[in-house]
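Hey team,

Filing this mostly as a record. A colleague (T.K.) asked me to run one chain through the structure pipeline before their review meeting, and I want the input and output archived in the tracker in case anyone asks later how it was produced. No errors, nothing strange. Just documentation.

Input sequence:
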Amino acid sequence: MAHFAQIDNTNTVTRVLVVPDDQEHRGQQFLADDLGLGGTWVQTSYNHNIRKQFAGIGYTYNPTADLFISPSPYPSWVIDDQFDWQPPIPKPDGNYVWDEDSQAWVEVPDA
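Output structure:
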């Protein structure tokens, strides 16, 4: 089965649906026209790692790079040239979690 993500006019993924294997080659047409769902559909896959990563609701499709970008984990993080989210301060070695309020990495004690 093939998966296709519907994107809105801001390139945000609004849903992901499965298309039968025999319709994969025409997934956009199958979903938009045959099923009457309209809209724009872009193939995504968790098996073949196409378009960087499997799309989920709230992801963004970048048509220039032809890939999906996950939502930002925190408001302070920025996207790098590989389309990965990066913190304002690099993560230190060890067991740390990001604290958005203090804008710092906080060490998590071993249990």
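Quick notes for T.K.: The first helix runs from residue 27 to 34. The chain has two domains: 1-71, 73-111.
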